[in-house]
Design brief:
With 349 residues, this protein is of the alpha+beta class. The protein has 6 helices and 14 strands. The protein has 2 domains: 6-42 and 64-212, Cupredoxins -  blue copper proteins (Immunoglobulin-like); 216-329, Cytochrome c-like domain (Cytochrome Bc1 Complex, Chain D, domain 2, Orthogonal Bundle).
Length: 349
């Protein structure tokens, strides 16, 4: 990793050259038109300067010249807009099957955890040639996860998820910065990205793991907080929920992505599933302030691991004891998680 000044950072991702070509095109056009305009300013200032015996004359420009003067810049701007939009959309849409890595920013460090359980501080190890999706959250103030060699950066805002992705193309070590001023020690919130061959990465992930996979921690939290007493019974089932389409009580249909799962944990009343709004007394409590960012990531990783359940052809119904509307009781079949049976002596939350 080059620790000195770098005018142009190295290229370490599949997107880095695309970003640079767009930048060079913008820079080239800017220089060209700046020189051209200043040339004509100087030329016209000299040719049409005030001098004895000279009288200003009205000049009628040809229509073709008028059209060219606004048409050519307009076409160039449309082309740059199309180019930039295409690149932006590509950078905003991680490919299917990308490897998820969770990132938490806090004053003044980056806490990183791989789904397999391996944790890092101010370092990010990734395999060569595999798309990597970073799911990022802030524990305190706004940060920005910047990777110059990969030509990506994204604000990490408290209270929500930020996502960015890249595909490493060169083995080595590269700079990691916080690109948003976040406090007195902002300049020290730096680290490195280590790109490794796939075999080396697998050995690194498997070594020195003190904690189990993230989904195991999430499953333990799910049990400890007694979530199973409601989900799958009086509350929507979580089996097969991730990335499915969910119809809400207000008529909207949303996708159950990472942001939706996080919002449902911290603000359950924001997106009530259709069919469950009649019984407000069993509304899930908010876990904002109760769970850490790391625990939220573990819960989401556990929910993502739940395979779709096979339901009965004729689902049974069970009346809610506190007078709410009858809600469908869905029973997982083979291949899904075990049936969730509530404690009859425990009041509905």
């Amino acid at each position: 990793m080059n620790t000195g000044f770098q005018f142009i950072p190295p290229h370490a991702s599949a997107m880095s050259w695309q970003v640079d070509w767009l930048l060079l095109a913008l820079l080239g056009l800017t220089i060209f038109f700046t020189v051209l305009i200043f040339f004509f300013i100087v030329l016209f200032a000299w040719k049409y300067r005030a001098r004895p015996g000279h009288k200003a004359e009205q000049v009628e420009a040809p229509m073709a010249l008028e059209i060219a003067l606004w048409g050519i810049p307009f076409i160039l701007c449309l082309g740059l807009f199309w180019w930039g939009t295409r690149l932006f959309l590509s950078a905003s849409r991680p490919p299917a099957g990308a490897m998820d890595i969770y990132v938490i920013g806090k004053q003044w460090m980056w806490k990183i955890q791989h789904p397999e359980g391996r944790k890092e501080i101010d370092e990010l190890h990734v395999p060569l040639g595999r798309p990597v999706r970073l799911i990022m959250a802030s524990q305190d103030v706004i940060h920005d996860f910047g990777l110059p060699a990969f030509r990506i950066k994204r604000d990490v805002v408290p209270g929500s998820y930020s996502v960015q992705w890249f595909t490493p193309t060169a083995v080595g070590e590269y700079h990691l910065f916080c690109d948003q001023y976040c406090g007195a020690q902002h300049a020290e919130m730096i680290g490195k990205v280590v790109v490794m061959e796939e075999a080396d990465y697998q050995r690194w992930v498997a070594g020195s793991v003190t904690d189990g996979p993230m989904r195991q921690g999430g499953e333990q939290l799910f049990v400890n907080m007694n979530c199973m007493s409601c989900h799958g019974q009086w509350a929507p089932t979580l089996a097969g929920l991730y990335m499915s389409r969910v119809r809400l009580a207000d008529g909207r249909t949303v996708q159950a992505d990472d942001a939706y799962l996080r919002r449902s944990i911290l603000d359950p009343g924001a997106d009530i599933v259709a069919g469950y709004q009649a019984n407000q007394s069993v509304l899930m409590p908010s876990f904002r302030g109760t769970l850490t960012e790391e625990q939220i990531d573990q819960l989401i990783e556990y929910i993502k691991s739940l395979a779709p359940a096979a339901y009965l052809e004729e689902p049974t119904t069970r009346p809610v004891s506190n007078g709410g509307a009858d809600l469908e009781l869905r029973k997982p079949g083979e291949g899904g998680p075990p049936p969730l049976t509530p404690d009859p002596n425990k009041p509905v939350e």
